Amino acid sequence: MDIWEKLLNEAKKQYHPEELSPFISAYHVACALEAENGEIYTGFCIEGASGVIALCAERTAALNMILSSGQKVVKRLVCYIDGVPDGTGGWTPCGACREFFMQLSDKNKDMEILIDFNTKKTIKLIDLINDWWGWKRY
User: Fold this and answer.
1) CA–CA separation, 39 vs 11, rounded Å?
2) From the CB of residue 122, how many other CB atoms can be counted at a distance below 10 Å?
3) Residue 126, φ and ψ in degrees, nearest 5
4) What is the 3-state secondary structure (H, E, C) of the chain?
5) Closest to 58 in 3D by CA, of 75, 41, 73, 83
6) Per-residue pLDDT averaged across 120-135, rounded?
7) Angle at alpha carbon of residue 29, lines to 52 and 95, rounded to 5°
8) Model confidence, pTM
């Protein structure tokens, strides 16, 4: 089993869409990431009727990584959204998550994100957020 299959299997475990209340839904996007030291962390999305309650699966996985180990650097990331990444889009982190990872560590620019499971095609975070405004602070 390669690392992408392992990450995807861990993400799938978090995927089970449900309504937590008439206002809050969760688990309809799941994420697994591999930290710099090789440990795997997972997360799921949670969304409320107002936008400020939303928290993406990618940031939840990152927060689990930070809380569990203090790590800030991600080597690889995969999302599961009712299926595996198939190259058609929709499996890359949103703008808020991209920004979060860049602000967390400048090394996250090299994070690989799986965009097609069948071909194992990846994209680096820097390719999704080029000409980033925050470089001068590092």
Assistant:
1) 14
2) 17
3) -60, -30
4) CCHHHHHHHHHHHHCCCEECCCCCEEEEEEEEEEECCCCEEEEEEEECCCHHHCECHHHHHHHHHHHHHCCCCEEEEEEECCCCCECCCCCCCCHHHHHHHHHHCHHHHHCEEEEECCCCEEEEHHHHCCCCCCHHHC
5) 41
6) 94
7) 55
8) 0.94
Contact 78, 114 (CB under 8 A): yes
Q: Name the residue among 8, 14, 12, 90 with its Cα closest to residue 46.
A: 14
Tokens of 131: 């000409």
Return the structure tokens found at 2. 């390669």
The predicted-structure confidence for 6-22, as pLDDT tens digits, reads as follows 999 999 999 999 999 99
Other beta carbons less than 10 A from residue 53's beta carbon: 11
